[in-house]
Automatic annotation (TrEMBL):
Keywords: Membrane, Transmembrane, Transmembrane helix. Pfam families: DUF3159. The chain crosses the membrane at residues 47-67, 74-91, 111-132, 153-172, 184-201. Signal peptide: none annotated. This is Intracellular septation protein A.
């Protein structure tokens, strides 16, 4: 009597959190705004001191990221955003305007992510497909396209939450609360968004589906 071959276990589905990560960048991004608020408070509501503190911290954070192998382009973009926010606040004389770029960028992100879903090019699929080297092949898998679309709405919700919170605090001129919200709505919200969107993504896929990395190859582009 011969032993029957033992079937190989199915490969585990890839974790969205493992692919996206992002904790370090989200934490780093919250440090300059916190420095702005601290400098503004310590110097008796001086926007100039707050701006100087934010820019100084941004430079230090950028140097640390570069020393750890971070991308120079990302560091330059982050520093430019901090400098621009500082210049806007100095120009208007309103400390809360330091956070105006953050507010507007989240408005733009919410609109772009929503449009990508409507146009059947959900950005979560674009990002993950690029990371996995799939380019646009994931769009030929109707199950993946549907799952990425559903999960992308969680990212729209993330940006919408920021717009509402930042908008209300900016309108009321609550500088300290804006600094706190900027920290709370960075890594904690990003982590929650990744976790929930990953759950939605995998729950939306059929049980027999191989997962994100092994997108089914179908003839023709069924996602048109």
């Amino acid at each position: 009597m011969t032993d029957s071959p033992v079937p190989e276990p199915a490969p585990a589905r890839e974790s969205l959190a493992t692919l996206l990560g992002g904790r370090g960048g989200a934490v780093d991004a919250s440090l300059p705004p916190a420095a702005f608020v601290v400098g503004w408070l310590v110097a008796d509501s001086s926007i100039a001191w707050g701006a100087a503190a934010a820019i100084a911290v941004s430079i230090v954070v950028g140097a640390v990221r570069l020393s750890r192998g971070g991308k120079a382009r990302a560091v330059v973009v982050s520093l430019t955003a901090v400098i621009a926010g500082a210049l806007i606040a100095l120009y208007t004389g309103r400390a809360e305007d330091f956070f105006l770029i953050q507010l507007l960028s989240n408005v733009a992100s919410a609109l772009v992510w929503s449009a990508s879903i409507v146009l059947r090019w959900p950005l979560l699929g674009v990002v993950v497909g690029t990371l996995l080297g799939q380019r646009t092949r994931w769009r030929r898998d109707p199950a993946l396209l549907r799952a990425y679309s559903r999960a992308s709405w969680i990212w729209v919700l993330q940006y919408t939450i920021r717009v509402i919170v930042f908008g209300l605090l900016w309108w009321s001129g609550a500088v300290v609360a804006l600094g706190v919200a900027r920290t709370v709505l960075s890594w904690p919200l990003v982590a929650l968004t990744i976790a929930v969107s990953g759950w939605v993504l995998h729950k939306s896929l059929p049980q027999e589906h191989p997962g994100l990395r092994l997108a089914a190859e179908s003839k023709g582009d069924g996602a048109r």
